[in-house]
Fold:
Amino acid sequence: MIIDAHAHLSNTEYGNIELYQNLMSEIGIDQVVAVPGAMLDVRKMTEYITGRAKPDNPVPDNQYIEKACNENKNIHGFICINPHDKDVEQQLEKGKKQGFKGLKLSPLSHQFSFSSKGITSLASLCGDYDFPFYTHVVYSPGASTAKFIQLAKKFPKTKFIIGHMGFGPADQEALEAAKSLDNFFLETSTGNFLHIQESVKKVGSSKVIFGSEYPLSHPGIELEKIMKLNITDREREDIVSGNIKQLLKI
Structure:
């Protein structure tokens, strides 16, 4: 079985459900963890990273993901919440009732600190709900790898997934956290081959999770990196399905 643990789906010409489902059939992906896309136009991602552009639509379209999950049993949704909202706890509770299975945050879209009140409330609730807490990090003091690790240490009952293996080509802080913390995991999308290989060697296959970052990257290309790793079949199975299945209890 192959599960893509991180794909952005949106009602757009470049990232909609139908396009992704065609790729699932083509590549042989069995299930997917979907999060709302199109808060940023990924076709001009560098503009956002460098600050030359601001998010086009920072309101996450959770309804699009909810509909996709209701209509397709092989799609599992993570709700995206803006931590600046005053009702974050109510939003997460509602998401749980709607069938979402985890939380997705976007510091590039919503520009927050991992030490903010909204974030700590969400991190605590994720532990109560058994929701994985997924986010990428940015080159910012408040939303850095170090700050995210501090959050993971503060809430050991919550499972934290750092997107794209952390920040930059080879984030050693994220790697060390995955090695030392039971509740800290590395998601592979857009990560480079050598760093993924070294991460499996140093922290074990149980801490690495395959994701594609669709539509910015092609699921087949991201999956090929995992297939080319010099690891055992059992380790590969952990990465492409076993670990995320265990976290989501699917």
Observations:
- The domain at 3-248 is CATH 3.20.20.140 (TIM Barrel).
- The beta strands are 3-9, 31-36, 75-80, 102-105, 133-135, 160-162, 184-187, 208-209.
- The mean pLDDT is 97.
